[in-house]
Amino acid sequence: MSHPPPSRDRMLEAAIRLLRTSGLSGAGINEIVRESGAPKGSVYHHFPDGKTQIAAEALALYASRVLSFLDTALAAGRTPTAKVRSLFAAMARRVESTAFAQSCAIGTVTLDLEPDMELLRGVLVSSLAEWQALVASHFDLGDARRTRSFAGLLLTAIEGAYIRCRAERSAAPFVEAGKWLTELVADGDSRRSPRRLSA
Amino acid sequence: MSHPPPSRDRMLEAAIRLLRTSGLSGAGINEIVRESGAPKGSVYHHFPDGKTQIAAEALALYASRVLSFLDTALAAGRTPTAKVRSLFAAMARRVESTAFAQSCAIGTVTLDLEPDMELLRGVLVSSLAEWQALVASHFDLGDARRTRSFAGLLLTAIEGAYIRCRAERSAAPFVEAGKWLTELVADGDSRRSPRRLSA
Q1: What pLDDT is recorded for position A2?
Q2: B137 three-class SS
Q3: Is A112 within 8 Å of B114 when comparing Cβ atoms?
Q4: B36 touches chain A (CB under 8 A)
Q5: What is each CA distance from A127 to A64, A106, A170, A194, B33, in whole angstroms?
Q6: Contact by Cβ (8 Å): B84, B175
Q7: C-alpha to C-alpha distances, B136 to B56, B133, B197, nearest whole angstrom
Q8: Contact A69, A94 (CB under 8 A)
C-alpha cells in the first residue's frame, strides 16, 4: 500500500513550486495551503515560525536538489567545453519542462526579499556559494581563483538566461550562453588532447 | 519659481523604484501612492486602467532610460574589449549606487508576472529586443548573427549578475562578468590594432 506524502512534505514541495514561479510574494501561507492541499491547521504545527520557516526550508531543499542537478549535468561532459555545453543544454531542457513558468528560486527570492524576511539572505548566499564550489570542482583552469571565477560566471549566466527565457518564452538564451561560454575554456580541451599528451 | 513635478510623474518615478526593488508584488497602487506622496484620488484620473497601466508606462520609461545608459557606457570604450569593460564597470557602479536594493525592472517583473498582468509581457520582450539591438550596434564580430548573439549574452550576464550582486551585496559579479566577457572579443581589438593596420 502506498501512502500519500505527509502534509509537511507536500507543503515544502508546494512552497518550492511557488517560490520558483514568483518568489516570496507568491508563496504566502494561503497559497501554500491551497497548492499543497494540506490542512491549514497543520501549517503552524509543522512550521511554528510560519512563512519564513517554510521558505527557508524549501529554499535549502531546493538548493540541495540543484546541487545534484548541476553535478549530474557537468559530469556528463568529459572536456571543459563538453561540460559547459552539457550544463546549458540541461538548463534549456529544464526551463522548457516548466513551460517557462518556473526558474531558480534563489533568483526569484533575491529579487523579492521582503524586509522582514532578511534572515533568508543567509540561505541565498550559502546556496550560491555551494553551487559555485561544486561547479568549480568540475573545472581546472590553471589556478583556483580563475576556476572559481569561471564557476561564478556560469551561475551568473544561468540566473540571467532564466530571466530572458521566461520573458521570451524560449530556451534560446541558455543555448546561446552555452555556445559562447564554451569558447572561454576551449584551450582547456586541447590541454588534454592526445597531441598535448604525446608532446 | 520651481514647481514640484506633477503627481503623474511622481507616481511613475515611484513605480519605477518599486518595480526595480521587488517587481510587481511591491508596486501596488497603495505602495505607489505612499512612495510618491501623490493624492490617492488622482491615481485613476491619471491611470484609468490602474496598476497594469502604471506598470506598463513605468516599464517603458525605465527601458528608454536603460537604453541611454547602455549607449553611453558602451560608447565610452573604443575597442570591443574596452566597450565590454566600460559596460560592466558602469553596471557595477549602478548596482552599488542603490546599495544593492534595486536591479533591472525587466528582470524583477519577469520573475513576478502575475497571470492577470500577462499583457505586460509585450513590454518586457520589446525592451529586451531594443536593448539587444542597441548593444549589438556597438560591436562588429564579423557577421550580424554572431554580433546579435553576443549582445544577447551581455544582457544575460547583466540580468544574472544583478541577482548575484543583490544576494551577495557586492558588485563583484559585474566585475567578474566584465573580465570574462572581454576575452570573447579580444581578437576584435587586434583586428583594429596598429599592427594589423600596417600589415
Answers
A1: 60
A2: coil
A3: no
A4: no
A5: 8, 8, 26, 38, 36
A6: no
A7: 25, 5, 24
A8: yes
- What are B146-199's pLDDT values in tens digits? 999 999 999 999 999 999 999 999 999 999 999 999 999 998 876 554 443 433
Pick the CATH number of B7-189 from 1.10.357.10, 1.20.1250.20, 3.20.80.10, 3.30.43.10: 1.10.357.10
Q: Would you call A117 an interface residue with chain B, using a CB distance cutoff of 8 Å?
A: no
C-alpha distances in Å from residue B139, one per residue of A190, B72, B88, B91, B184 = 29, 14, 15, 18, 12
With CB atoms and an 8 Å threshold, state whether A107 touches B111. Answer: yes
Query: How far apart, in whole angstroms, are the C-alpha atoms of residue B77 and residue B125?
Result: 27
**Is the minimum CB–CB distance between B25 and chain A shorter than 8 Å?**
yes
pLDDT for B13-33, tens place per residue?
999 999 999 999 999 999 999
Q: Which of A12, A8, A172 is nearest to A105 (CA)?
A: A12
State the ipTM, two decimals. 0.93
Distance from CA of B111 to the nearest CA of A (A): 6
Kindly tell me the burial class for residue B67, based on how many C-beta atoms sit within 10 Å of its own C-beta (0-12, 13-18, 19 or more).
middle
What is the C-alpha to C-alpha distance for residues B155 and A74, in angstroms, rounded to an integer? Answer: 24
Tell me whether residues B108 and A107 touch, CB distance under 8 A. Answer: no
Encoded amino acid at A194, one letter: P
Which of chain A's residues have a Cβ under 8 Å away from the Cβ of B125?
Answer: 167-168
- What per-residue confidence (pLDDT) applies to B1? 53
Question: Which fold is adopted by the domain A7-186?
Answer: Tetracycline Repressor; domain 2 (1.10.357)
C-alpha span between A141 and B115 (Å, rounded): 44
Cell of B65: 532610460
Amino acid of residue B79: T
Cβ atoms of B39 and B7 within 8 Å: the answer is: yes
Please name the residue of chain B whose CA is at the shortest distance from the CA of residue A168.
B125
Q: What are the pLDDT digits (tens) for A166-198?
A: 999 999 999 999 999 999 999 887 665 444 343
